[in-house]
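Practice problem: predict the structure.
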Amino acid sequence: MIFVMATAIGVAACGAEDEKKADAGAAKDPKPVVEMKTSMGSFKVELNREKSPITVDNFLKYVEKKHYDGTIFHRVMSTFMIQGGGFEKGDPPTEKETMEPIKNEAKSNGLKNTQYTIAMARTNAPHSATSQFFINVVDNSRSLDAGGVSPDGYAVFGKVIEGTDVVDKIKAVEIGTKRLNSRHRGQIIPGPHQNVPVKHVVIESVRLAESKPAAEKKPDAEKKPDAE
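Answer:
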């Protein structure tokens, strides 16, 4: 096992239902952008619905439900990735309930786990991803792409297009071993977790933003980019 990105929650039935979700997403914005506001600043993520329709639509459902509001980045590794979207802030943080797991699109979408891409966290079971995601802070394509060290791979579904400096700040926070309350089959299971930020890095909100990439915008002469 290379690593386990989320707690075990079972595998959903994939197939016809997932295909319906993909078809429904085809007529929508192919590259929606979300703004993620955190306690350490904001950054924008461009999602790739063209290549990862099931994953993007699943992520946006959680956004619509405001599932991510008040959650934390609960796993931070400065030479690997930052992971969040599952645990509510608290003492100790507790894992939130989720929708059903989705099909892993890592083998079919052709997207690589390069620096600043966003991908789905999961257990050893390939089709177990729900709400948790991670942002690659280095190029992890060799270890996380399908067909390599990890045969099934971890599904990339977008990339950070604005505010990478905020991602870099988050990856550098002090970490330690702390207790988290995980969920398994409806039960709360407390236990120690490594690489947890000593001080909560809170995801305050995730909302749809304008889809036009920052590089195409006319800069404001009186403002510096990524000022947060």
